[in-house]
Amino acid sequence: MHSKRFKEIMKISPRRFHISASPPYGVGIVFCNHINNNEESEFQLTSQRDGIRKCKPGIWRSVAKEFGHDGLAPDDGPFMECYVHWVADGTIDMTQAVKEWETYDMENREKDAAIDIDKILPDGVEWVKAGSYYDDGGVCSILSTEYLTMDAAKKVMFAGDEDKEVKYGYYLETITLNHCDGLPENSNFTLGGMNFVQDAVGGPPYVAVARQNGQAIAIKLHYGIGAEDDDAEDDNARDDGGNEDEERVLFKEYIGFRKEDGAMQIVLKHQGIVGCIIPRDVPTPETGH
After folding, report:
1. Strand pairing partners for 257?
2. Domain residue ranges of the chain, discontinuous segments joined by +
3. Where would I find the H helices in the chain?
4. Distance between CA 165 and CA 243 in Å, rounded?
5. What are residue 204's DSSP bridge partners?
């Protein structure tokens, strides 16, 4: 049975979601492709890469930041950087009326718009690379596991009514395909997180995680330069053999792409100087490889 209530919530594509202190499977955030399994399974959520454990409990926000025009040709972008980050304590009631959900999300969407995404990390906290994400179907979802259980499907679709039959596969499929089935203004967002095509970030994205007191407080998917394609479990993903100062430059100074004589170049900026490099095996925006 499909649900009018569910369709109305998906039209909102809430920008806020929550993670509990004891999330399903012990994983706060997962990265997955298009999924539609009718049985609950941790494997379908983590088969593309390991999820992010030890996330700070509370309410998180989804946001996409466009970049790619500064110093680039008009047809080179824009691309996106995609973020989910902690904003407040609390949880969101999945059984609340659609109107209440819409009011809550729209009010906070206006408030959250004032947040400078480049300044979301507290002093002393830095982005640390945590592998990458690739799916040959090109779909990328960053989702809180709180929204991916059968119980969550009942709450979202039927406000927790136990007598209703839940089409769990349809529920998961709708969430993970919202980038193509939803409204254009919601194309990067979905219930419980974000959903988009990989090339929206300029190719298969790299993952960066910011932690405070041992807990993830922000996660970023971005186009990486020279980062290792490391699918290690997040808790072991820090590149301790590298230079952290160089990693910070990597994340802060990247501007975008440009074409020169038919070759893709990476545009970098350091101490006010803009330069270009032609990296090895860089995926292009047109092909993704």
Report:
1. 266
2. 4-242
3. 4-12, 42-46, 98-112, 150-158, 168-176, 178-181, 244-253
4. 53
5. none
CB 76: neighbour CB atoms within 10 A?
Answer: 20
* Residue in 145, 159, 183 with CA at minimum distance from that of residue 28: 145
Give the confidence band of 194 by pLDDT, cuts at 50, 70, 90.
very high
pTM for the model stands at 0.76
The pLDDT of residue 273 is 42
**For residues 22 and 276, what is the distance between their CA atoms, to the nearest angstrom?**
45
Question: Contact, 287 vs 264, CB < 8 A?
Answer: no
**pLDDT for position 249:** 34
Rounded Cα gap, residues 174 and 197, in angstroms: 15
Q: Which residues of 37-49 are buried (b: 16+ CB within 10 A; e: fewer)?
A: eeebeeebbbebb
Tens digits of residue pLDDT in 267-282: 554 444 444 444 444 4
Q: How far is CA 225 from CA 146, 192, 241, 246, 276, in A?
A: 32, 29, 17, 11, 12
Q: Nearest to residue 79, comparing CAs of 91, 70, 66, 88?
A: 66
Q: Are strands 127-132 and 16-19 parallel, antiparallel or unpaired?
A: unpaired
Poorest-confidence range of 105-109, 112-116, 249-253? 249-253
Q: How far is CA 244 from CA 129, 142, 157, 234, in A?
A: 10, 25, 45, 17
Lowest mean pLDDT among 89-98, 110-119, 249-258: 249-258
